[in-house]
Amino acid sequence: MEAAVEDVRLHKSPYKTAAKKFNVPRITLKYKVEGKHPIDRKMGPPAVLSRTEEKTIVDWIFEMARAGFPVTMKEVVFSVQRLLTELKRPNPFKDNCPGKSWMKGFMKRNPGISVRMSQNLTRSRAVISKEQILNWFKEVDTFLDHTQQKYVLQDPRRIFNTDETAFFLIRRVVVLAQKGDKTVYQQVNPDEKECLTVLITGSASGAIHPPTILFKYKIIPQEIAQNFLPEWGLGKTDSGWMTCEAFFEFIADIFHPWLKKESIPLPVILFVDGHASHLSLQVSQFCEKNGIILIALYPNATHLLQPMDVAVFRTLKEHWKKRVHEWRISNLEAPILKKKDFPKLLKEVIDTTLNATIFENGFRKYGLFPWHPEIVTVPLNNEHLHN
């Protein structure tokens, strides 16, 4: 339409000729040339989001890519859904969740965004080289230089790593039985068949953030809420695994208040893996506003860069299995570990297993503090690689 208007005004083309040339309605073209209708007037129903709001999403997509968090369409949809819910804005979407047609229109309105297939690193292909690790450190340096926040790397109190792992309520163990018995059964309660997701967070100075436990419920049962540790984080999701919303609640309602309570100077750096469950526009906006710098670890290299993955989880889970076995032996009259008992038992294991030195050594070993890219050791074969 703009080209047709320009053709009429500058080149004196007849309305009929210009309309046919640029495939636009002749009467509409006439009204726009005469100023009766604005040239940039949009046809069809009004957009759900304003241009400013869409630009905010576009800028977020680009900024996340620079920080190592490639944004998926699912994460954009979730972010828009949460935004519309917060704004309480009327819209044609079911449960405020935009569909494929909105996403298609969003991409069309913002041609600077292109769809790319992310590179999934499998066990057979994920041969992480020293060069890739060094490049990741350089990218983090560049990112922090760009935001003028590189000084944060000098203070161990302000460098954090968080990651989630699964704890089973029961594990098969080696037991003693009468000679000749072919099968030995272990009593299992439905509770025990599940695993619980636990988010562990710590700093390079050795500070241990109270864990957050995710339960697979829509509403937390009263017996769990009543027996839960007041200083720990309590979350729920439909799957029991981490989601965008659960991670936002962890950042906004648990991690940030703890930083303020412990008088940790802001900003802080929080190293996380680049999994989609950590990402949403709301998380990014909250972190930017409240001095939390999210940095994604190099994909499929958490075993080389993440203190939680080896230094903490491996030790913690070894002691957890032993403690659960001891608990069952000492509770033979009712040897069923229920979900409501899980937090207190896990706290016993954490209190007797984890200490500041473990966290300090983990950050040091993986070059995160002191910031030392060359110290990271990369295996020469795939035997040490895992997803």
TrEMBL record:
This protein's record includes keyword DNA-binding: yes
Pfam (any one): DDE_1
One GO molecular-function entry: DNA binding
GO cellular component, one term: nucleus
InterPro entries according to UniProt: CenT-Element_Derived (IPR050863), DDE_SF_endonuclease_dom (IPR004875), HTH_CenpB_DNA-bd_dom (IPR006600), RNaseH_sf (IPR036397)
Residue ranges occupied by any HTH CENPB-type domain in the UniProt entry: 41-116
Keywords, ordered alphabetically: DNA-binding
Highest taxon of source: Eukaryota
Protein name (Swiss-Prot/TrEMBL): HTH CENPB-type domain-containing protein
Source taxonomy: Eukaryota, Metazoa, Ecdysozoa, Arthropoda, Hexapoda
